[in-house]
Amino acid sequence: MILVTGAAGFIGSNFVIDWLAQSGEAVVNLDKLTYAGNPENLKNLQGDARHVFVQGDIGDRALVDQLLKDHAPRAVVNFAAESHVDRSIHGPGEFIQTNVVGTFNLLESVRAHWTALGDADKAAFRFLHVSTDEVYGTLGPDDAPFTETTPFAPNSPYSASKASSDHLVRAYHHTYGIPVLTTNCSNNYGPYHFPEKLIPLVIVNALQGKPLPIYGDGQQVRDWLFVKDHCSAIRRVLEAGQPGETYNVGGWNEMANIEIVQKVCALLDEFRPRADGKPYNEQITYVKDRPGHDRRYAIDARKIHTELGWKPVETFESGIRKTVQWYLDNPEWVAHVQSGAYRNWIGTQYGAAA
Ligand code: NAD
Ligand code: DAU
């Protein structure tokens, strides 16, 4: 079996759902259930004996030691993190605690467990760390995309905390020999994406007649990947990645934020036209920019393609249609995540009028 951390969140829950659909191998899911962790994401797995959920912190040494002892997983996949850049600007402390100290404690538990294994189990064991393209910093309009050898230059407390964890993971391979793998992926979108992030925020705000906030001039560029493609990349790296290596994961799909929002609005015009017949893009509102906002990210994903044969299945056009449709089909999920705590965040970030 495998231990997956943070799998009540956006990508982790998609990963576990896909994993269990495609393999008979059981999963222990360790998640603290912060505001971003949502057991509802996993409700279709209720009654499935292959999924064991444990509420807890990756930084809790005693708990993680016990889980490793009880379940003897052949691999650990670490999704658990504080993941929202804007929240890291308002309050970096939790990001250091989970992403840096938490990852360190998790690695310490894994080191103790791995050291005690026999030679064959040691060689077969994997620790896969799920990271981000944001560790590489920002690009100019004509710069080449990030490769695995691009120097780290993180610009937000979030990306700095992720870069720190990536360095720790690397060091545990170099120093102790633990067979680690790291993936650095671009922006994901898809089902179960918490509506603090751009795409789900725009979908839910549009449907609720609220402003669609665009930071600064909206010309910041991101590379977008459908979440199921990220999950297949992680499965492939776990299966065939070379221990100690890092793999960039991306969709070859750079787009400016304003373009993304226009596309989402156009799909909503098609699927669920406004009652007054006007286009949703009338709700677009330019707001104050994010401090230290990275201008452009772009991923060179040739290594994972040439060495491991992975490439994305969805185009942005097919993935975003599925995503918008999923939000239209799941109003209860949206209503439940827009709880009191969510409203407090929206008030803090966008002001009382939002
Ligand atoms: P998310 O915020 O939706 O989910 C994070 C999950 O981790 C939640 O379920 C939360 O409860 C859990 N968690 C937080 N702190 C924890 C702790 N101390 N112990 C145990 N569980 C804890 O995040 P996501 O978007 O699903 O991202 C998952 C991972 O992928 C993160 O490491 C993130 O840096 C990385 N990543 C995300 C993206 C993206 O576009 N969302 C892209 C590249 C990489
Ligand atoms: O690149 C990978 C990263 O992608 C992950 O590591 C992060 O966990 C994930 O949150 C995401 O980070 P971003 O900051 O790129 O995602 P976000 O959805 O917050 O913002 C996407 C872009 O949209 C970014 O340029 C900021 C802008 N934006 C965002 C919000 C929430 C807006 O213009 N308005 C908004 O209201």
TrEMBL record:
Which Pfam families did the record assign? Answer: GDP_Man_Dehyd
Q: What is its EC number?
A: 4.2.1.46
Listed cofactors: NAD(+)
Residue ranges of domain NAD(P)-binding in the record: 3-323
Coiled coil feature spans: none
SUPFAM superfamilies documented for this protein: NAD(P)-binding Rossmann-fold domains (SSF51735)
Q: Does the keyword Ion transport apply?
A: no
Determine the domain of life of the protein's source. Answer: Bacteria
Keyword Magnesium found: no
Tell me which UniProt keywords the record has, alphabetically: Lyase, NAD
Q: Tell me which Gene Ontology terms the entry assigns under biological process.
A: nucleotide-sugar metabolic process
Among the GO molecular function terms of this UniProt record, one is:
dTDP-glucose 4,6-dehydratase activity
| CDD domains membership | dTDP_GD_SDR_e
Q: Which reaction does it catalyse?
A: dTDP-alpha-D-glucose = dTDP-4-dehydro-6-deoxy-alpha-D-glucose + H2O
Which NCBIfam families does the record cross-reference, listed alphabetically?
dTDP_gluc_dehyt
Family (UniProt)? Belongs to the NAD(P)-dependent epimerase/dehydratase family. dTDP-glucose dehydratase subfamily.
Name of the protein described by the UniProt record: dTDP-glucose 4,6-dehydratase
The organism encoding this protein is: Hydrogenophaga aromaticivorans
